[in-house]
Amino acid sequence: MKTELQNIKVRAAEALMAAGTTAEAEQLRVAYLGKKGELTAILKQMGGLSAEERPVIGQLANDIRESLEELIQERKAVLGRAAMSARLEKEVLDVTMPGKKRTAGKRHPLNLVLDEVEEIFLGMGFEVAEGPEVELDYYVFEALNMPKTHPARDTQDTFYISEEVVLRTQTSSVQIRTMEKKKPPIRIISPGRVYRSDEVDATHSPLFHQIEGLVVDKGVTMADLKGTLATFTRMLYGPDARVRFRPHHFPYTEPSAEMDTMCYACQGEGCRLCKGEGWIELLGCGMVHPEVLRRCNIDPDVYSGFAFGIGLERIAMRRYGIDDLRLFFENDLRFLRQF
Ligand code: DAH
Question: 3-38 pLDDT, tens per residue?
């Protein structure tokens, strides 16, 4: 039995030296020292030994087990290190290579300008309201005093989805949705996309952006309208910005006006940019038509209001000196990276 034990030790040690991986070393541990291993099998025969032999063999078996365990541990460590350096050698890492540059995104110029506009109106106590782009004819036209036969509809080149559903041509629809939900005092702006089936050119796009404004309360007058919009313009373009109001017509306001700002290129002299006018149109506005209020269950004898609609692209073009509307929508990185 003693020789058998010594044999096991020698064979195990030889096999271990031949093992090429830590997994193989582990297999050997199981084969020799495991529950069903060779050494264990021998120990199970110890019952047949005499009382003198038993402790001697027992001691020997334990010594062998311990030294094999140690050997296996060492071999595993050696093999592990060898595997690691083999891997490191294979994975060439050139620490002198330049790093990969991360390209950070930028905000779109329309969003930059929208932030500015929102900031100004929030500062004046307005809230931001939203409405759907796919909208009922009722909110885009009908409730704004434009029944099916109204000629003003023709100017808006509407995309129809069905008889009663359209892509909104103006954010004015949000006025109605707001007044249906909220009672005065109301002070909201509502920025968003609008759609008109226009041919694309430097000043037309089938998709563009408006910012609608609505104020309804007791005793709101045209003076509030002018003061609010003139203040807005000065906050946007600086304290010297000049504005003028021209009479106009919108079916949902009475009276109605368009507001111009003095041409920033020629200071009112008249140039190519303002087509000789000296002024550039910035927005449409007016006092909310009593019929529009009435439709939303707001009593026009008690409340009055003003509304306005601003074209966002126009402001951004002036802010950044952009002369072609198409640049906003083409997403050419050379353009977008400039902001
Ligand atoms: N909806 C008009 C447009 O698309 C802009 C506008 C004019 C909005 C007058 C208003 C307003 O709220 O009162 O051109």
Answer: 888 888 898 889 888 888 999 999 989 998 888 888
Q: Look up the pTM and report it.
A: 0.71
* Cα–Cα distance measured from residue 242 to residue 258, given in angstroms and rounded to the nearest whole number: 14
Mutate to test the pocket of ligand 1, among 139, 166, 250 (most ligand atoms within 8 A of CB): 250
Which residue shows structure tokens 């093992």?
A: 19
Q: Is the dihedral of CA 243, 245, 250, 254 positive or negative?
A: positive
Ligand 1, atom 2, residue with closest C-alpha: 309
Residue nearest to atom 7 of ligand 1 (CA): 284
| Closest CA relative to residue 209, chosen from 193, 188, 189 | 193
Please tell us whether the domain made up of 109-336 is placed in CATH 3.30.930.10: yes
The DSSP string of 175-241 is HHHHHHH-PSSEEEEEEEEEE--PPPBTTB-SEEEEEEEEEEETT--HHHHHHHHHHHHHHHH-TT-
